[in-house]
Amino acid sequence: MYQKMETRFTRGKSAILERSLTRPKTEVSVSAFALLFSEMVQYCQSRVYSVSELQARLADLGQGVGASLLDVLVLREKNGKRETKVLNILLFIKVSVWRALFGKEADKLDGFPAKVTVHWHKGTTLMIKFDEAVIARDKALEGR
Amino acid sequence: MSRQSNRTTDSKKMNAELFTLTYGALVTQLCKDYENDEEVNKQLDKMGYNIGVRLIEDFLARSSVGRCQDFRETADVIAKVAFKMYLGITPSVTNWSPAGDEFSLILESNPLVDFVELPDNHSSLVYSNLLCGVLRGALEMVQMAVEVKFSQDTLRGDNVTEIRMKFIKRMEENLPAGDEVHSRICVPC
């Protein structure tokens, strides 16, 4: 989705593609979101038999949200340029993504792992485990 | 619900984007889990009902609205206070039936459907059906049985989105027998 598309590309396509992608002005209450989210968790819970299945289902739901958010945020805040280096992606998450989700930046950026797991230790820590290939590529890019 | 909240705090707002995307994720998941649109509509209504039953307590705690005298007042409270508080929009109340037991809410915008398009193979999906359940559940907790449905939907090609609400009956308050009375707030709206 791009902010401005030439009409010759959108003629015949839906009006939605013409809409602006600036931050919406409407605000919803946090309790509306909390109630919706709670119901979604309960829905997932009713369809699984284990905690790990529940977490997997919730993560699946989140993945779609994340993908859409990525496109919008990158367009809005980075002028369409996506980060490809590990540290920059993490910074992007810490600053932009967290701000879009929670209204403020994440507190700290620690350590480097692309499987995300949640740990509770003096507050909530999300651990992201990167594959070997990503680390290797990052090392190779460091030269540029 | 034992969360302490007084009227002036707890009106935290957030940008509608995450809310819209989250709702979209829910509807998408339901479409995968259920075979047809009718089932999804039913499920959305059911989930909305569960939300409404809890939302009403939050609403009564956070607004200074008292008991509604009649259905007209109820309509105004829903449109001007509740929708504003939770979704940041103010639908208009129109199309009253002569008997005063039915009205329409016209929504010019709806944060649930921002940037949403229904694909052709889901033409009978009532995307925002959760809202119907929420209204039904919330009003049931204040002793009003209502029927709520979408009579027009911009996602399905109409010019506006219209929710039709019909008053069915006043419900009996369910108080347990015996001396004890539950402290659950059931302020008739």
UniProtKB/TrEMBL annotation, chain A:
<dbReference type="Pfam" id="PF04051">
    <property type="entry name" value="TRAPP"/>
</dbReference>
<protein>
    <submittedName>
        <fullName>Trafficking protein particle complex subunit 5</fullName>
    </submittedName>
</protein>
<dbReference type="GO" id="GO:1990071">
    <property type="term" value="C:TRAPPII protein complex"/>
</dbReference>
<keyword id="KW-0333">Golgi apparatus</keyword>
<dbReference type="InterPro" id="IPR016696">
    <property type="entry name" value="TRAPP-I_su5"/>
</dbReference>
<keyword id="KW-0931">ER-Golgi transport</keyword>
<dbReference type="GO" id="GO:1990072">
    <property type="term" value="C:TRAPPIII protein complex"/>
</dbReference>
<dbReference type="GO" id="GO:0006888">
    <property type="term" value="P:endoplasmic reticulum to Golgi vesicle-mediated transport"/>
</dbReference>
<comment type="similarity">
    <text>Belongs to the TRAPP small subunits family. BET3 subfamily.</text>
</comment>
<keyword id="KW-0813">Transport</keyword>
<dbReference type="GO" id="GO:1990070">
    <property type="term" value="C:TRAPPI protein complex"/>
</dbReference>
<keyword id="KW-0256">Endoplasmic reticulum</keyword>
<dbReference type="InterPro" id="IPR007194">
    <property type="entry name" value="TRAPP_component"/>
</dbReference>
<dbReference type="GO" id="GO:0005783">
    <property type="term" value="C:endoplasmic reticulum"/>
</dbReference>
<dbReference type="InterPro" id="IPR024096">
    <property type="entry name" value="NO_sig/Golgi_transp_ligand-bd"/>
</dbReference>
TrEMBL record, chain B:
<dbReference type="Pfam" id="PF04051">
    <property type="entry name" value="TRAPP"/>
</dbReference>
<keyword id="KW-0931">ER-Golgi transport</keyword>
<keyword id="KW-0564">Palmitate</keyword>
<dbReference type="GO" id="GO:0030008">
    <property type="term" value="C:TRAPP complex"/>
</dbReference>
<comment type="similarity">
    <text>Belongs to the TRAPP small subunits family. BET3 subfamily.</text>
</comment>
<keyword id="KW-0333">Golgi apparatus</keyword>
<keyword id="KW-0449">Lipoprotein</keyword>
<keyword id="KW-0813">Transport</keyword>
<dbReference type="InterPro" id="IPR016721">
    <property type="entry name" value="Bet3"/>
</dbReference>
<keyword id="KW-0256">Endoplasmic reticulum</keyword>
<comment type="subunit">
    <text>Homodimer.</text>
</comment>
<dbReference type="InterPro" id="IPR024096">
    <property type="entry name" value="NO_sig/Golgi_transp_ligand-bd"/>
</dbReference>
<comment type="function">
    <text>May play a role in vesicular transport from endoplasmic reticulum to Golgi.</text>
</comment>
<dbReference type="GO" id="GO:0005794">
    <property type="term" value="C:Golgi apparatus"/>
</dbReference>
<dbReference type="GO" id="GO:0048193">
    <property type="term" value="P:Golgi vesicle transport"/>
</dbReference>
<dbReference type="InterPro" id="IPR007194">
    <property type="entry name" value="TRAPP_component"/>
</dbReference>
<protein>
    <recommendedName>
        <fullName>Trafficking protein particle complex subunit</fullName>
    </recommendedName>
</protein>
<dbReference type="GO" id="GO:0005783">
    <property type="term" value="C:endoplasmic reticulum"/>
</dbReference>
